[in-house]
């Protein structure tokens, strides 16, 4: 049976389009949507889809009550929120991040003592333990193991490579015993077990209610197995984000080899599912397809025609074609010489700003966002991987009393408690040097168990007393 694969074009809002398609399930059975399971990459995407349902439902948030589907984030390394499956209590719990880092730090300190010399400082051991924890999660997510760790470093390489290899042997030799003593698993390993257990349960007993995997691109063997099972379920569907179906077979082969290409994981997923990009249909499925499969009110089979059900224009999407050409794999960029000039419509509404400095870049973006506020009902978003740029733009907007929602959150050191904690640590590290001391005492959270006014007065008097060279 052909897998149930769909895609939402890159020029459409993914979560809004997903929610609009799922709302069709209420037409046949008002309770079917509530029984539907939607698998999502992260908790943030689950919260965003919740809001998208409220906007897409008739009447919006002020409309009739809406029973939402069960939203399950399965990409986060949070074992308690992956999947509430039967038999999950039989899988050992996940070791907390703090406990794992402390245990790994103890192993690193022991390894340093065995090397002789002065060993490692606790701060150095904690940093190395954090790196080991990330390596453990990466190896577990990729379905690899440390069995052939010794083969990575031949004997004829430099001595420092041998030291690195001996250091990494902490993980296959000592770490399993520590986990057994704790009666726990690494978070990534527990997630893999839960995903495989759920995939096996659904393969043996397919659920009657729809199961939709949305926005997942594989990348991990356990996750890919679950996606394959969902795609094969009679009531299952896998919805991909922005799959470029205009590439030919040669280009897709190049994308499969190019790990830096944005469609690389999708290409590998389709390869493992045995499905060509041209066989993936548009989401939401057309009404004709929905009623011809006999699966209504469940999700339809992609064996029907491709219509998207949105009445969208079937003409060439110039801008998407231009972006697709810009993202060609390096091995096929020679095709650019055969392309005709891009029509002006492809870049209609696109502006380019050349900024001589990072600060002017932030100011320019802030002005563009502020200008959007002058249009009633308009919205704007800044999409950037540069966290420093996002913080600078937010600071510029605060000059006009404009508060923006940063979806990446605020780093702990930049929150008032985190900043105060950092000042206290610097104070302790400097052994009460005047500058760190006054900085910590001047923080709004510093009170010393006194009334704030009294504490501020004593802090000012202390600042006058220790002014001058460091004692």
Report on the architecture of this protein.
- The protein has 471 residues and is mainly alpha-helical.
- It has helices at 14-22, 25-28, 32-35, 43-56, 97-115, 122-141, 159-168, 170-173, 175-182, 187-204, 221-232, 249-257, 264-273, 287-292, 318-326, 358-372, 387-398, 416-429, 434-441, 452-465; strands spanning 5-8, 37-40, 70-73, 211-214, 236-241, 281-282.
- A 6-stranded parallel β-sheet has the order 3-2-4-5-1-6, with helices on both faces.
- Helix 1 crosses helix 4, helix 5 (97-115) packs across helix 6 and helix 16 (358-372) crosses helix 17 (387-398).
- The protein is globular and about 80 Å long.
- The chain starts with a strand and ends in a 6-residue tail after the last helix.
- The model is unreliable at 288-316 (pLDDT under 50).
Can you give the helix content as a percent range?
A: 40-55%
Low-pLDDT regions: 288-316
Q: How many strands, which pairing sense, and closed or not: the largest β-sheet?
A: 6 strands, parallel
Q: What percent strand?
A: 5-15%
Shape verdict: globular
Distance between the termini: 81 Å
Integer average pLDDT: 84
Gyration radius, to the nearest Å? 28 Å
Lateral arrangement of strands in the main beta sheet:
3-2-4-5-1-6
Number of helices: 20
> Structural class, from secondary structure content?
mainly alpha
Number of strands: 6
Helix and strand run? EHHHEHEHHHHHHEHEHHEHHHHHHH
Features:
globular, 6 strands, 471 residues, 20 helices
